[in-house]
Design a protein that fits this description.
heterodimer, A: 99 residues, mainly alpha, Histone, subunit A, B: 504 residues, alpha/beta, Amidase signature (AS) enzymes, 12% strand, disordered C terminus
């Protein structure tokens, strides 16, 4: 039995911004279902009253004075970009046809 | 050993640094010999993505000038080191073994790289890994697998397989990897060397390409406990650029190594014995006996919660990864597959740039964090993480360090676990609880398995108790039978098969 259908996998792939073929979606449906079966053993544990651990250390926010300090120059920051225009990152149209 | 060592005959971190500092050898000669060795041996093993010959020779010459001028060249003077290719090196490609970062050149160095240079170490190259450190065999590299120097038909483990194999093959005496769910310790076990995951926050993650930020730690590989300790000390300590870095002075750990285990309370974790090969559980038991014979107070301890570690890890790590890897969007760096609109560009870039395992993890993580499933999966895994932490706390009321098998098996054949992702995930069974708890843990070579391949034993300790962990590890190393640890004696590759080391 599949815990996660091909249609659900298709939806998650869109959320994750991964273009996948129908064959890849079908394979992932099986693989994700098998992993969720494995995870089922901890879903059944009684954890009522147990706080979550997001981080292994008892961390507090680490703040510093808001003072200027050296960073990358614009040219250094842009050096690895796939497309640059007028000292900025260049991207295809963002608004328009999207649902 | 002199044919593979520094001109003075030294092959260890300590020995090379001593020879260079005392002018018995020059850093240049050490580095030249290292580069020749890599060139002769790495064609078959494929430990390296990039060999930084020019930069390494320039650094070595600068060190020799420093020494000639009478200035201190640093504690690791002239020691050649290799870095996993997810540790950023300014001006040198840092690919993460991914097509999406194939030609990415970072504009800055990771903190560990700065610290190694300050210590006088010479970075000679960047090593192969499973793509974005996701895997346990180094087969998930977009640029081909690394082979185990003990047996080239076997994997070196992963994800830091290139670094582990480079040390095991004697190409370098010291290398660094990252350990999110065993990625230092498991390949160390498979390659018969020492691999150490420090306490979370003990080594700066600044410049380590993020996989799962609450679990990732950088740590060293070396052939001996002492060399691994020197490697840890060179990079450990507070870094204001990593907000999770612990602001606390690093202990002088070298003193611990000769301390012996008299009176040390050592607990052998019972739970994994049923899940691992007899050679692996047998090695852990033999290690417990050896520490008892050396004066430790040894007992067994049941920590049932460690068995929840793997399923909790395989929710938490992919969840964090799916968030961290959202940055690869084809805009600021890395691959872009063009399209008429931004969303299609994002979809195509990520679909084409990530390999199968990375896509799988992103999908698991996105699902576990998505509306309607967040609490059932991610929330529950975080609560189970608390149960694992509490279980360790209880065990450490009675014990100073714990022992466990490191891996479920010795190094497996290439291709043996690639068909079923869950088979591969089980490789991390004994390793992940320490990542969830943020505790230090290490693998020490201690036995040979059924196929004559090395098997490590895992030493675990509470947060910031590296000193106790290293006392036990040094005692295990002293008690280990001969022939269980690298470097392996390798025959040079036939002429013409040598790699130029420059490409994938």
């Amino acid at each position: 039995m599949s815990r996660i259908s091909v249609e659900e996998v298709r939806h998650v792939a869109l959320l994750a911004r991964l273009e996948l073929s129908d064959d890849e979606l079908a394979v992932l449906s099986g693989e994700l279902s098998a992993l969720l079966d494995h995870v089922e053993q901890i879903r059944r544990l009684d954890t009522s009253g147990v706080p979550p651990t997001a981080h292994p250390l008892p961390m507090r926010n680490v703040l510093r004075e808001d003072e200027p300090r050296p960073g990358l120059s614009a040219a250094e920051a842009l050096a690895a970009a796939p497309a640059v225009e007028d000292g900025r990152y260049s991207v295809p149209s963002i608004l328009g046809d999207e649902p | 050993m002199s044919e593979r060592g520094a001109p003075g005959g030294a092959t260890s971190v300590r020995g090379i640094a001593a020879a260079v500092r005392s002018r018995e050898a020059t850093a240049s000669s050490v580095v030249e010999e290292t580069l020749e060795r890599i060139s002769a041996m790495d064609g078959e093993l494929h430990c390296f993505h990039t060999v930084m010959a020019k930069e390494a020779l320039a650094s070595a010459r600068a060190l020799d000038a420093t020494i000639a001028a009478g200035r201190d060249p640093g504690p690791l003077a002239g020691v050649p080191v290799a870095l996993k290719d997810n540790i950023c090196t300014k001006g040198t490609t840092t690919s993460c073994s991914s097509k999406i970062l194939e030609n990415w050149v970072p504009p800055y160095d990771a903190t560990v790289v700065e610290r190694l240079r300050d210590a006088g170490a010479v970075v000679v190259g960047k090593t192969n890994l499973d793509e974005f450190a996701m895997g346990s065999s180094t087969e998930n590299s977009a640029f081909g697998p690394t082979r185990n120097p003990w047996d080239a038909s076997r994997v070196p483990g992963g994800s830091s397989g290139g670094s582990a194999a480079a040390v095991a093959a004697g190409l370098v005496p010291l290398a660094y990897g990252s350990d999110t769910g065993g990625s230092i310790r498991q390949p160390a076990s498979f390659c018969g060397i020492v691999g150490l995951k420090p306490t979370y926050g003990g080594v700066s993650r600044y410049g380590l390409v993020a996989f799962a930020s609450s679990l990732d730690q950088i740590g060293p590989f070396a052939c001996t406990v002492e060399d691994a300790t020197l490697g840890l000390l060179a990079v450990a300590g507070h870094d204001p650029r990593d907000s999770t870095s612990i602001d606390r002075e690093v202990e002088p750990l070298l003193d611990s190594l000769g301390g012996g285990v008299g009176g040390l309370r050592v607990g052998l974790i019972e739970e994994f014995a049923a899940d691992v090969a007899p050679s692996c559980s047998g090695a852990a038991r033999a290690a417990a006996d050896a520490l008892a014979a050396a004066g430790a107070k040894v007992g067994e301890v049941s920590i049932p919660e460690v068995r929840h570690g793997l399923p909790a890890y395989y929710v938490i790590a992919p969840a964090e990864a799916s968030s961290n890897l959202a940055r690869y969007d084809g805009v600021r760096y890395g691959l872009r597959v063009d399209a008429g609109d931004a969303r299609t560009m994002n979809l195509r870039t990520r679909g084409a740039g990530f390999g199968a395992e990375v896509r799988r993890r992103i999908m698991i993580g996105t699902y576990a964090l998505s509306a309607g499933y967040y609490d059932a999966y991610y929330g529950q895994a975080q609560r189970v993480r608390t149960l694992v932490v509490r279980a360790f706390e209880r065990a450490y009321e009675d014990f100073d360090v714990l022992l466990a098998p490191m891996t479920p098996s010795e190094a497996f054949e290439l291709g043996a676990k690639t068909a079923n992702p869950l088979d591969m995930y089980v490789s991390d069974l004994c390793a992940v609880p320490s990542n969830l708890a943020g505790h230090p843990a290490m693998s020490v070579p201690f036995a040979l398995g059924e196929s004559g391949l090395p098997v490590g034993v895992q030493v675990l300790a509470p947060a910031l108790r590296e000193a106790a962990m290293l006392r036990a590890a040094a005692a295990l190393e002293a008690a280990a039978p001969p022939g269980v640890r690298g470097p392996v004696k390798l025959a040079a590759a036939p002429a013409g098969a040598a790699s130029d080391g420059g490409g994938e």
